[in-house]
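Translate sequence into C-alpha cells.
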Amino acid sequence: MASSSLSTLGHSLRLLPLAIAFGLLLAGCASVPTDPAARAEYERLNDPLEPTNRAIFGFNEFLDKALIKPLAEVYHFLLPDFIETRITVFVRNLGEPLTFVNDVLQGEPDRASNTLGRFMANTTFGVAGIFDVATDAGMPRHTEDFGQTFGVWGIGEGPYLVLPIFGPSTLRDGFGTAADMFADPVTIGVNEANVQGLALGRIVLTGLDARARNLQIVDQLRSESLDYYATLRSAYRQNRRSEILNGAPVPQEEGQSGFEEYEEFDGIDP
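Result follows.
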C-alpha cells in the first residue's frame, strides 16, 4: 500500500507542471492595456498573468522562508564541505542522461558524445558518480532540458509563469518540465525498479542540495532588489535565452537583467 501511494505521488508530481500551466492560462488574465506605451511595456514583459504570478510567488517565498531555507541551512551546517560536494556531483551525474536525450533531439552530436562520455566516466571511474573525473579529462559539463529543446525547435516561450514550488518558468518551460519528468531515463529506471521512496528521495535531495548551494546568493538578491519578483523574472528569461543559444551572447535588443554578477547562481528548483 505504501509503495502504491508513493507511486501515485510520483505520478502526480510529474503531472504538476502541465496541470499548473493549463490552470494559469485559464485563470483571470490582466486586461491588455490600450495605451500604446503601456501596451509596448506589457508586451515587453510578456507577463499577462502577473497578478496571479505574484500571488504564487508570495506563496513560494513563504514556503521557502518557513521550510525550505531552514532545511537547507541545517543541511549545509551539518554536512562537511567534502560530503556536500560529493552529493552535488552525484545528483548532477544523475541528470546527465536527460541532458544526453536533449542533446540528441537538438541535433548536437558532439555535445551528446561529451555528455555520454561524462556519464560513463563519472559513473565508473568516479565511484558511482560521486567524483567528477570527466571535467578533469576534458569533458566539461553542460545541461539541457526539454524547455531548451522546444526553444531550439523554434517554439516561442509564451507568457511568463510562476509555478508553485518550481518557481520561475514560461508556458513552454512548464510543458518542458513535464516532459523532463516523463522522459528522464533515470526517472524511468527508478520507476521500473519500483523501490519505495527512491523517486521522491531523489527529488528532495536534488532540491535541497540546489537550495543549499545558493543560500548566500538568494539572500543577496532579496536584499539588493527593489522588486525581487521583477528581478527574478528578468534574470530567468535572460538565462533561458542564453541556455538555448548554448552560452552565446543574448542579442543586445533582448536587454540585460543586471544579473550578470551572479553567474554562479544555478537555480533552486529540483
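Note: The two ends are 26 Å apart (CA to CA).
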